Amino acid sequence: MLSVPGLLLAWFRRRCNLECWMISFAGFALFAAGFSLVALPPADAEPCCRYTVNRGDCLWVIARRHGITVEALVSANGLKSDLITPGQVLSIPGKNVVPAPPPVSTTSAEYKVVRGDCLWLIARRYGITVAAIKEANGLSSDLLHPGQVLVIPGDAGKGTPAGNPRITPTLSSPVPARAGDVVQGLLGYARSLLGTPYRWAGESPATGFDCSGFTKHVFGRFGVHLPHSAAAQNSSGVAVGRREIAPGDILLFRTYGPGIDHAVIYCGDGWFIHASSRGGCVRMDSLAEHYWDTHFVSARRLLKR
Question: How far is CA 96 from CA 49, 54, 57, in A?
Answer without folding.
Answer: 6, 20, 21
